[in-house]
Each structure stands twice: as structure tokens, then as C-alpha cells.
Write a structure and sequence with these properties.
32% of the residues lie in helices and 23% in strands. The protein has 330 residues and is an alpha/beta fold. The radius of gyration is 21 Å and the shape is globular.
Length: 330
């Protein structure tokens, strides 16, 4: 059986600020298999986007990847030179950024930008790259793609700009596609179209997808596996169906109770998570979630839990569930 397409081990990314060291990604490990869709969820500031940028080697100063391995095609991406990384970035591993308005260059026509990866990685002529860009724009649902390819980004609606970003990521048919909040700021009908588009990409090209989102409903409909992050760490991972049906970490359990569910009693009140995420410069001792956790025991306040198997299919970093306690309302 072939190994994982992407193997991330103990990845740590820190930002060195005058106030102190921000541990934005703190020991993240996971695998991504060919053709699968992996969801990464968590509150803002949990480390989702920084994890993705770390994989792409796009961390801006004063941040940097301080340790860990990212193995792709037998190479550790953290050890490659910038020129070697440029050969992979956009060719084998592509990323759809969170805000297409700031990601697309306003002074270049959309078709040129979508075709640019082909000129960089495949040495195609400008004319051939433009023709390929028109074809890909049509595949992602842009109407009259030959005409729209000659437009500038400000001529496009938010949904069309997001489609153009997806097209840019697909021109080289990458093995891995990282989608960072691809439906942010889009209305629900456009969101559904974008998600269906990503689903079709996965089916047609066999592209492995990392989907970063705060929307648990999107993950339920799109992802085979899910990884839950809190304070720069993975606190739970496993098959999406199992994690959502039987969460093994109090943070996952709390997230699921804070959103409406079709399978819940219609009179059941939503219960927000009390408190705020911790300061990543000054994390509390023990489990970072314990100040907000209704299940916390003394050990949670003292010792940092590690990710261990809990149940048949899930991993969780929690002393409570590792001791065999089920998470349920008191």
C-alpha cells in the first residue's frame, strides 16, 4: 500500500515579536493521502492558516518554521532552497488564499494571472497559457470565459473572483490543493457552488485537498477526515463522521454544541463556549483549553496532554477522555 502523499511531523512555527514568542503552530503532525479531503477546523487564531502557510513556506517575517518535517515526494520541504520550493509551489502543491480580492493583482487581466503558473512551471508561451487559462476558467463555471479572461479582477463578482483563484490553482493539475476559507464573505448560494466545484475537482483530477474552515457544516459535507486545532495544536482528529457523532475532546464537543444541528431537538438551546482563546505568547500550564473546559480535572491544569488514540478511530489530546470518561451534559 503506498504511503501518504504528504507527511507532516512535529511542525512548529513561531513569530518572534517584541512582546514575546508567539507559538502559532506547536507540534502539528498529520498525513494526507492521495485523493482525500482533510478538513482543518478551529476558532480564529487556532493556527489553521499558519499551518497551511508553513507547508507552502510562505510565513512572513517575523515568523519562521523553527522545526519539524514536511515530507512530499520523498523530499523534506522545510530543507529545500527557495528556488527548489518555487518549483513545487504552484506546480505540485497549490493554495487558494482566503481573500481573492487581495490575492489577485488588480493591474493584470484575469486570464494572464490564471495562465501564469503554466508560463513559470511549464515554459508555455503567453498565447498558449492564455488559451489554457480560458479552458480552466470555463471548467470552474465562469460564463463566456474567453471574454472574461480579458477582464480585470474588479470586473468580477466575489464568487467569480473565488472561481478565478480556484482556476489559478488548477492550471497545473497539482497533487495537493490547499483551500483556506474558500467560501468566506460569499452568500450561501455562491458558497454551495464553490464547494461543489471543489468536490468536482477532487473527483475529476484526484487532487488531495486540505480544506481550512471554521464552518463545521462545510466539513461534514466535504471531508472524509477532520483535524480540530486549538492554540496551535491538534486536539482531535479522525474520520469526520466519528468525530462529529462522538467527539473525544471537550473543545470539539463544545464547538458542536454551539452551532445549530438538524438532528438536535428544535427547542434545544445553543451553548456558546465561555471565555476566550488563550494568549499564544503566554499559554496557561497544562492543557491550553482547561480554563474554558467544563470537564477539566486537576491533571489538566498541570500536565500538557499528548495526542493519543481514544476509541477505535480517533485521536485526542485530553486527559479526561483518555481515562475513559464520556463527554456528556451534566
Amino acid at each position: 500500500m503506498p504511503g501518504p502523499l504528504l507527511d507532516v511531523h512535529d511542525l512548529k512555527t513561531q513569530f518572534f515579536t517584541p512582546e514575546g514568542v508567539v507559538k502559532a503552530v506547536d507540534g502539528v503532525s498529520f498525513e494526507l493521502n492521495a485523493g482525500e479531503t482533510l478538513g482543518i477546523v478551529g476558532e480564529s487564531g487556532s493556527g489553521k492558516s499558519v499551518t497551511a502557510l508553513s507547508l507552502m513556506r510562505l510565513i512572513p517575517p517575523p515568523g519562521r518554521v523553527v522545526s519539524g518535517r514536511v515530507i512530499y515526494d520523498g523530499n523534506d520541504l522545510t530543507k529545500l532552497s527557495e528556488s527548489e520550493m518555487q518549483g513545487i509551489r504552484g506546480e505540485s502543491i497549490a493554495m487558494i488564499f482566503q481573500d481573492p480580492m487581495t490575492s489577485l493583482n488588480p493591474v493584470f487581466k484575469v486570464g494572464w494571472q490564471v495562465g501564469e503558473p503554466l508560463m513559470l512551471h511549464r515554459a508555455e508561451s503567453k498565447a498558449k497559457a492564455f488559451t489554457s487559462a480560458v479552458s480552466v476558467l470555463g471548467k470552474v463555471g465562469i460564463p463566456s470565459p474567453a471574454d472574461r479572461a480579458r477582464d480585470y479582477p474588479h470586473h468580477f463578482s466575489g464568487g467569480m473572483r473565488q472561481r478565478a483563484m480556484i482556476a489559478m490553482g488548477l492550471t497545473t493539475t497539482p497533487k495537493v490543493l490547499i483551500a483556506d476559507e474558500p467560501t468566506t464573505a460569499l452568500d450561501v448560494t455562491i458558497q454551495a457552488q464553490i464547494l461543489e466545484l471543489l468536490r468536482n475537482v477532487n473527483r475529476e483530477f484526484g487532487t488531495a485537498t486540505i480544506l481550512i474552515t471554521h464552518n463545521l457544516g462545510v466539513v461534514a459535507g466535504m471531508c472524509e477526515r477532520v483535524m480540530v486545532m486549538y492554540a496551535g495544536r491538534i486536539v482531535e482528529s479522525g474520520p469526520t463522521e466519528d468525530v462529529f457523532a462522538h467527539p473525544k475532546h471537550p473543545y470539539t464537543w463544545s464547538l458542536l454544541r454551539s452551532i445549530p444541528r438538524l438532528d438536535a431537538d428544535r427547542h434545544e438551546a445553543l451553548k456558546p463556549i465561555e471565555g476566550l482563546p488563550p494568549d499564544l505568547i503566554d499559554l496557561p500550564p497544562g492543557c491550553a483549553f482547561h480554563p474554558r473546559c467544563v470537564f477539566a480535572i486537576e491533571r489538566c491544569k498541570r500536565d500538557t496532554p499528548v495526542l493519543n488514540r481514544v476509541g477505535e478511530t480517533q485521536l485526542a489530546a485530553c486527559w479526561v477522555t483518555q481515562s475513559g470518561t464520556e463527554l456528556r451534559d451534566a
